[in-house]
Amino acid sequence: MWKRKAVAGLVLAGGMVLAQTAGAQAAPAQHPLEGTDPLTTGCNVGAYVVKAWDIFNVVYGEVQGLAQLVYSPSCGTNWVNVYGFTAGNNYSVVISNNYNGGGFDASAGGGGSAATLQTYAPGDTCVTVDWSVQDIATGNGEGSGRSLIC
């Protein structure tokens, strides 16, 4: 009986080695739409807002901006639009995903808007959106948040 256990142990150990070897594969090649502008690629056509966040300034206790996660079903990409409502502040967003670890940012001043470059995230690929508001004069952060969307 001990021989069967020893053989089973060797088979299990061999399986673990195979599993480790199989996991050591090269990272997938970057998708051609990764890091591109959704307007110039045409990915904005048919795109829609998946989720929107108020950018809340905790110092003043008020909403001072807006972030929108946008998805393009035709391209399988996401990007974030950011809108700043209050002069004297900077509104920033960053989008990243678990597929390739890429991250793209955009910032807008009060009364302005901006958009990140797009990241390839087809179907149910998760993306992370970070947002923040900062007082331009002092450099102090006045609010931030993070969401994982799948």
Q: How would you describe the overall organization of this protein?
A:
It is a single chain. The chain has a single domain, classed as Immunoglobulin-like (Sandwich), CATH 2.60.40.10. It contains two helices and nine strands, in the order ααβββββββββ. The protein has helices spanning 2-23, 38-41, and strands spanning 48-57, 62-72, 77-84, 89-97, 103-109, 113-115, 119-120, 127-135, 141-149. Strand 1 (48-57) and strand 2 (62-72) form a beta hairpin.
Notable traits:
9 strands; four-stranded antiparallel sheet; alpha+beta; elongated; 2 helices; 150 residues; five-stranded antiparallel sheet; Immunoglobulin-like
The CATH architecture designation is Sandwich
- Unreliable stretches (pLDDT < 50, length at least 5) are 1-27
Shape: elongated
How many structural domains does the protein architecture include?
1
CATH topology: Immunoglobulin-like
The total count of helices amounts to 2
Biggest sheet details = 5 strands, antiparallel
Distance between the termini: 49 Å
The CATH class is Mainly Beta
Supply the helix-strand structural class. Answer: alpha+beta
